[in-house]
Amino acid sequence: MASPSCFHSEDEDSLKGCEMYVQKHGIQQVLKECIVHLCVAKPDRPLRFLREHFEKLEKEENRQILARQKSNSQCDSHDEEISPTPPNPVVKARRRRGGVSAEVYTEEDAVSYVRKVIPKDYKTMTALAKAISKNVLFSHLDDNERSDIFDAMFPVTHIGGETVIQQGNEGDNFYVIDQGEVDVYVNGEWVTNISEGGSFGELALIYGTPRAATVKAKTDLKLWGIDRDSYRRILMGSTLRKRKMYEEFLS
């Protein structure tokens, strides 16, 4: 019959083996990152979110394995070949191609962002809040993010008859109508009008695609706009702050 000390030794070995396994595969860091992502996103269906998160990790792991295998195979077949050093590629930041935004925002971009504050009265802030409350680009924002977005919005004015945005042109700004009314045209044909409290140009905040419609001032206009750069930096900065907070909580 095995002695108690023998069982104790087996338990210690098992625990040590478990610790080595967790350390070898970085399990603790993977789970920590997973919880951080979960806390930042706060999805309505957390189990589905976790499944998709781990599926992405698995795909990335498979990609890295294939890349290593390909690299090893190339090394084996070209051991005695010496290739000239290729020139350093020129990396163009925030390049656009095919009408789709290829902008890549880094942590440095978010940290270096200088908060913009365009003064607004209470009535304007209330109107802006109401105008974007049901907009999909803003519905997920917390109070701090929403406040930063509102502060960064700048005034734009047009007189009746002027073109606010032109179909086919590059889109950079999103607008909320404070005063006035606009007509919307697609391929030269009138499709709708938008009045006070309405908004347009949402796709400009996500993509660099050309404007899908022409918007003209039906009356004198007062708009509030925000540019894509500010929108993305604000959200990225907020996400980084949340990540740091949750990581410290889990440490």
Automatic annotation (TrEMBL):
PROSITE patterns: CNMP_BINDING_1 (PS00888), CNMP_BINDING_2 (PS00889), CNMP_BINDING_3 (PS50042). Residues 137-251 form the Cyclic nucleotide-binding domain. Residues 66-89 are annotated as: Disordered. It holds the Pfam family RIIa. The keyword Thylakoid does not apply. One of its GO terms (molecular function) is cAMP binding. Keywords: cAMP, cAMP-binding, Nucleotide-binding, Phosphoprotein, Repeat. CDD domains: CAP_ED, DD_RIbeta_PKA. The keyword Repeat applies. InterPro entries: cAMP-dep_PK_reg_su-like, cAMP_dep_PK_reg_su_I/II_a/b, cNMP-bd_CS, cNMP-bd_dom, cNMP-bd_dom_sf, RIbeta_DD, RmlC-like_jellyroll. One of its GO terms (cellular component) is cAMP-dependent protein kinase complex. SMART domains: cNMP (SM00100), RIIa (SM00394). PANTHER family: CAMP-DEPENDENT PROTEIN KINASE REGULATORY CHAIN (PTHR11635), CAMP-DEPENDENT PROTEIN KINASE TYPE I-BETA REGULATORY SUBUNIT (PTHR11635:SF126). Belongs to the cAMP-dependent kinase regulatory chain family. This is Protein kinase, cAMP dependent regulatory, type I beta. It comes from Mus musculus (Mouse). The lineage of its organism: Eukaryota, Metazoa, Chordata, Craniata, Vertebrata.
